[in-house]
Each structure stands twice: as C-alpha cells, then as structure tokens.
TrEMBL record:
Location of the region described as Disordered in the Swiss-Prot/TrEMBL record: 1-21
This protein's name: DinB superfamily protein
Domain of life: Bacteria
Biased composition (Pro residues): 8-19
InterPro entries: DinB/YfiT-like, MST-like
C-alpha cells in the first residue's frame, strides 16, 4: 500500500519553522502512517473488525478519505459535493460503498490526499474557508490553519486506533 515511509518532519533547529509547512509535513507523515499500519493485512483483516464498535481498518481508511474531501474540498473551497457525508450510514457508522474494493479505497484515499495538498499549497495559513460549502457564513468559516490542525489531530487519533487494531491482528507494533 505504501510507496516509502515518509520521514518524521524535522524539529525546528534555530529559526522558527513556517507553521504552514510544518502542519502540512506532519499531516503527510500521518497520512503515510495510516497506510503503513494497513500494509500487509489480508483483505479479511482489512474488511473485518476486532472491536466492539465494529469498524474495520478499510472503513477507517474510507472515513479518512471522506474527512479529506469534507474539510478541504467542501469545507475550505466550498466545492459542491453530492454526498459530503459519504462515509456514514443510517446507524452513523463508517461504511465503504459495496462496489469498492480495497484498491479502490486506497486509490480514492490517495487522490483525496493529493487534492487536499494542492488546496493547502495554494492558500495562506490565515485564509478563511469559502462560504457556500460546509460553511454558511463568515462567522463559521475557519482558517486553513484551523482545518490543517483539525485534520492532523483526527489522523493522529485514528493512527492510534490502528496501532491497537494492528497489534490485535498480527502482533505488529511501532510506527
């Protein structure tokens, strides 16, 4: 699933780092971490659940693809999306559309991450989200900085969930 492991972003040495660059680098690190956690799991392990809540690793990856789509395309650029909550079903659980295979979900995840990178690269850290997508008025519209850090914390939390799932699946621990 992964091409190569992204190195952990270097800590600042003597000058303050550019926050936009640092947040984007850490987000890429966690995007890669999630794929590494899934790498080597069988399709049965990817689609099955070992947890009482019932979500599967593949559903979590689909959820993160939808998070990217919701926050950057629909949220920040106000791109009209047919179904911004495509990862939820009526029971408010993550669900992968039935027609999608593992490779389809991975490809969609990578494509959404690439699009999010493009969006973030073309905006200033202090730019506010456009009105008309996820946000109805200026008072609701967060900055790109807020969105980057929100999505980063979501990735960090879910990477931790995958640590546990992976250890339960085959004993693998660590990065």
């Amino acid at each position: 699933m992964t091409d190569t492991a992204a190195p952990l972003p270097e800590p600042p040495r003597s000058t303050p780092p550019d926050p936009h660059t640092m947040a984007s680098a850490y987000l890429d690190y966690y995007r890669d971490t999630v794929l590494r956690k899934l790498d080597g799991l069988s399709e049965a392990e990817l689609r099955g659940s070992r947890l009482p809540s019932g979500w599967s690793p593949l559903e979590l990856l689909w959820h993160l693809a939808c998070v990217e789509r919701r926050w950057f395309r629909w949220g920040f650029t106000a791109e009209p999306l047919q179904d911004p909550w495509a990862d939820h079903d009526e029971a408010d659980r993550w669900r992968v559309p039935g027609h999608m295979g593992v490779d389809d979900v991975v490809a969609r995840f990578r494509a959404e991450c690439a699009r999010s990178r493009e969006i973030a690269a073309c905006a200033a850290f202090t730019d506010r989200a456009a009105i008309g997508g996820r946000f109805a008025d200026e008072a609701q519209a967060p900055t790109l900085a807020w969105i980057l850090f929100h999505v980063l914390q979501e990735y960090a939390r879910h990477a931790g969930h995958l640590d546990i799932v992976r250890e339960l699946a085959d004993g693998a621990t660590g990065e």
